[in-house]
Predict the structure of Pyridoxamine 5'-phosphate oxidase.
Amino acid sequence: MSGEATDTPRPGAAGVFADTTAAPVVTRSPSAEAASTGMAPDPFALLADWLPANDDPARPLMTLSTVASSGYPDARTVLLSEFGPEGLYFHTDSRSRKVLDVTATPRAALTMVWPGRQLVVQGDVSRASAEEQTAAYGRRSRYLQMLAWLNTDDFAALPLEERLATWAAFGEQHPDGSLEAPGTWAGFVVSPVRITFWEGRPDTAGIRTEFTRASGAGDSWGCGVIAG
């Protein structure tokens, strides 16, 4: 165990060890737009400005918070696979605790943080379509495609030397472009009911612009500015 802690990630693990924390260039301020027009901006148009495009290979990291069967909250970091009018997507192993959580209680929160900005999405969770799951796997880096096959408790329990050898052998047996999603590959979409954009400033207090979906009103959203 002592030798493992000093090992650094090897190159090529795109999507995990790449700089996914870099903030995209933002041109729209939710609070400024609400103040200048007196009308609520479209929250999904703001999401499109705050988040990288779906075809950007550097996917942002986000904290996925769920409610465990114990009643305690749980949280872990996942990649934002893509987003659209239906919600924000993430993909994971169907045997994971997060899947158990959202299956039992299909509600979750997503949090993304950049310097001076924060985005929190609260919503209902549902399973992504088979077509979307297949497409999302195809867009994953080679490292993440292999990880979807090998990331098991049994693999984690192996000594480092065996993990390295098993990983290398699996890569040799499955050339780049030959892998399909394993049966444990699962995708989910978080359909927002509340979206909160936090904007910070060094010269005054930060503020939050919060959008809340109106119950039973389709795509109608309420908007308010609250303390940060």
